Amino acid sequence: MAGSDALVLASGAMTRNTTLKESFTLPAALAGRSIVLVGLMGAGKTSIGKRLAARLGLPFRDADTEIEAAAGCSIPDIFSRYGEPAFRDGERRVIRRLLAGDPLVLATGGGAYMDAETRAAIRHDAVCVWLRATLPVLLRRVAGRTHRPLLNAGDPAEVLRKLMEVRHPIYAEADVVVDCGDDSPDHTTSLVLDAITAWQKPRRLSLALSQASYDVVVGDGLIGRAGALLAPVLPQKRAVVVTDSHVAGLHLARLQAGLDATGFTHTAFTVKPGETTKNMETYAALVDQVLDWGVERRTAIIALGGGVVGDLAGFVAASTLRGLPFVQVPTTLLAQVDSSVGGKTGINTRQGKNLLGAFHQPRAVLADTAALATLPVRELRAGYAEIAKAGLIGDAAFFDWCEANGAAVVAGDREAQAEAVLRACAFKAMVVGDDEREEKPNDGRALLNLGHTFGHALEAELGYGAILHGEAVATGIGLAFRLSAKLGLCSQADADRVVAHMAAIGLPSELTHLNRRLSAEKLIAHMRKDKKMRDGQLAFVVVNGIGQAFTKRDVPPEAVVELLRENGCEA
Question: Quick check: is 456 catalytic?
Fold first, then answer.
């Protein structure tokens, strides 16, 4: 996963250590960060750490040596005199002090990473590398050692086996895992260098809301790392995965493997794919399954899939036991930039879309850009509509970016996709943070409904699934700009520009692009059932121009009917 945002640590650029003999290309995310080696005794943390530091031109420190120097006695003496809790407290303080200084390579004791505070400090200031070794390898390396208090507690093989059971699920939270066999220390050091060269730090967007704070994490390969990423933010390692049968075949096994690696107890329930699944019957069946499995109030619901799964699983989480922890793992572009962020959950009723639901913020959102490679181009285009929407609502410069990079996003360019997801989510986070429960009478979170009054009506009329949500929104955005121009609120040139861009991406942006006979009367009837209705008036998000959206509740119905007829609707 070598990224384009990389730097070269060459000998001429280093001043702290003149022993560097080679140049290595490392991710820019590593600049200014320490490297911390974790693993069981015998994994080679000290020998590998010294070689790694020399090859990178960084100082090396051994946490155990630093602890002994600070305490003025050996580690066995600390254990015998003061006990393990006192040792762990000193260890925690020493590691924090070392990480607070200039970047270095740090080898830790086998139990250091088990402390939650120490893990948090390492996660914040360093790249953590787990040197993973098998039991036979470890036994050969620790044979004859008498200075390790834990090894003196019984048969070394049994001691190490028990330590592996307890510690490996925690070590699996490390950023990088390197398997260490009987290779030479120099060869293993090269493996570590290769691994950290390939490593890319996921990009994070933090949302601070009135009732919850959480991160949207964007990166490549996050599904397989789900356990490591979720362990720090969930209250217990028990989870129910909700997915659909299509997504399960693509991604469920990797998600489960990631949960297994970090010691999660979990199960999975699968629903049929498609918008028609988001109904009362499926919801009730899922609640029964979740309760039958024996969830507790700290058990998490993990939604793995697109917007349908996210909305459905989120509502199950919001309502079961009056609220369960919830995680979004969106696998479609549309879900990554829209439905997974902001806490809206719900299901459809026969009266309309998302009319039964709740606001329930997730504990985390993991947006794996690798999952987007499994999508057909039609779904990528549908997701792109929500990306462009962000710029059209309140960021004209972002819409300029969309015009320049939209084709790359739908063509599968990972860098362009990651940038688009982050920028769209950042915009949505700003809007949601200002109006979390959509309670402002004007503007606020309602602005995110640009194109949705028309779009939801099209979905209801054509049938959920017959037109994708993003396609309906793209058409709705085109109509919203056409309506704004008709009312004299924006220029015709802006409306034409938006319609042309959506069409260039391959999205329908006018009713004629749908190739369906539509009735203006029926579409208006659907709009009147929309949950955005207030005091019997239709509500629209309209614009004064690109990036200048606002809500308007006094739109003359006859203007809407006239617009629909001008765009190909029958009476």
Answer: yes
- For residue 148, the tally of other CB atoms under 10 A from its CB is 19
> Domain of 105?
6-198
428 assigned to active site = yes
Last residue of one domain, picked from the residues 346, 375, 404: 375
Is 566 an annotated catalytic residue? no
Backbone torsions φ then ψ of 72, nearest 5 degrees: 75, 20
| Radius of gyration from C-alpha coordinates of the chain | 27
Residue 396 lies in a domain: no
Tell whether 169 and 284 lie within a shared domain.
no
Is 449 considered catalytic here? yes
Please report, as a single letter, which amino acid is at residue 377.
V
- One of 344, 353, 381, 389 is an active-site residue; which one? 344
List average pLDDT for each run of 10 residues in the chain, which is 571 residues long: 30 33 58 94 95 95 94 88 90 95 95 95 95 94 68 80 96 96 93 92 89 92 97 97 98 98 98 94 98 98 97 98 98 96 93 90 97 96 97 97 98 96 94 88 90 94 89 97 98 98 96 94 90 74 97 91 94 75
DSSP 537: B
Global confidence as pTM = 0.88
- Check 469, 501, 513, 526 and give the catalytic one: 469
Query: What's the sign of the alpha-carbon dihedral 146, 151, 152, 154?
Result: negative
How many domains, the chain? 3
Same domain, 221 and 280: yes
SS3 210: coil
